Amino acid sequence: MRVAIITDNYFVTPKTEEIRSLLANSFAGVGLKPVQLRNDFLLPSNEGEKPLLDAVLFWDKDAVLARRLESFGIKVINSAQSIELCDDKGLSALRAAECGIEMPTTVLAPFTYSNIGYTDFAFLDKVTEVIDFPIVVKERHGSFGQQVHLASNFDELKEIVRKIAPIPMLFQQYIECGNSDLRLQVVGEKVIAAVKRMSLNGDFRANATLGGKMINYTPTKEEAELAVRAAKCMGAEIAGVDILPGKKPLLCEVNANAHFKRLMDATGVDVAKCIAEYFAKSI
Ligand SMILES: Nc1ncnc2c1ncn2[C@@H]1O[C@H](COP(=O)(O)OP(=O)(O)O)[C@@H](O)[C@H]1O
Ligand SMILES: [Mg+2]
Questions:
Q1: How far is the CA of 145 from the centre of ligand 2 (A)?
Q2: pLDDT tens-place string over residues 133-170
Q3: What's the order of all strands across the beta sheet hosting 3-7?
Q4: 179 CB under 6 A from ligand 1?
């Protein structure tokens, strides 16, 4: 079996490199000898030869490259379609609705051309008809909580939209959960580890990268089932699922290539090993 681990060539940090080497070492542990490739190893083209690969752990958001590899008949985990879905919080919300998965009420902003932006904000009246303040505004593509904002009134909402536009965005009901959320790590339809993340500085976003604290967490049956159903709905075999633990658990988002090092440290679960074992079994 010729296998590869593909990571991003441009977003390279000590954290991404650590995850890459954890995955590579774990692959060796299950008898696989992966080549480590960056997402520029092959430029998607309508021509060109199939690379000498049978299966790929696709640890990047380059869904177009993933799609090209799939078209050559290479097994790609996670699939191109799941990477596309997870990477777009708007498409994810629509997909979750198709699967009957409960999320906070979510409304997508209308499309506009990037050289025009919004020439009026009338659509915000429709948003506030169905979502009460505070309203969470999310850029459809974003990570680490960095593109997620909170508006407590109409003026703030308009100001945030003005700043973000013309970048695609969505509006979501704020769910009170004490500035905390849950991250459940799913591998092959099983929750293998979970943490509770808590923001300690008053920020409503519980992301670890923003300084949130993580503690080992045992999910309820309902939470674990929601995470597995959500990952499956997006087609993600390996997923970091964020859940908002409000009055009832609601899906926040599914991450197709979630950073798992801090979750590994907090739970003691060898996530990289679980991923390698699952990958070896699935190819
Ligand atoms: N609807 C919401 N209500 C309350 N908190 C939210 C809501 N959506 C997101 N958050 C908080 O913001 C964080 C980041 O949002 P998320 O959608 O996961 O984006 P990112 O991809 O940047 O992690 C979440 O982990 C959660 O703590
Ligand atoms: Mg998140």
A1: 6
A2: 999 999 999 999 999 999 999 999 999 999 999 999 99
A3: 35-38, 3-7, 55-59, 75-77
A4: no
Which domains does the chain show, CATH number per domain? 3-78 (3.40.50.20), 84-101+177-282 (3.30.470.20), 106-173 (3.30.1490.20)
N-terminal to C-terminal alpha carbon distance within the chain: 9
Ligand 2 centroid–CA 97 distance in Å is 19
The side-by-side arrangement of strands in the sheet containing 135-139 is 106-108, 169-173, 135-139, 148-151
| 21/249 Cα distance (integer angstroms) | 34
Q: Looking at the CA of 169, name the nearest ligand.
A: 1
pTM of the model: 0.97
Going by the DSSP 8-state scheme, the letter that residue 259 receives in this structure is: -
Which stretches does DSSP call E strand in 88-175? 106-108, 135-139, 148-151, 169-173
pLDDT value for 80 = 98
Q: How far apart are CA 213 and CA 10, in angstroms?
A: 28
Residue with tokens 């506030």: 128
Cα separation, 282 vs 71, in Å, equals: 18
* Ligand 1 mutation pick, 136, 141, 148, 184, max ligand atoms within 8 A of CB: 148
pLDDT digits (tens, 9 = 90+) for 187-243: 999 999 999 999 999 999 999 888 889 999 999 999 999 999 999 999 999 999 999
Q: What is the mean pLDDT of the chain?
A: 97
Question: At which residue do the structure tokens 């964020």 appear?
Answer: 242
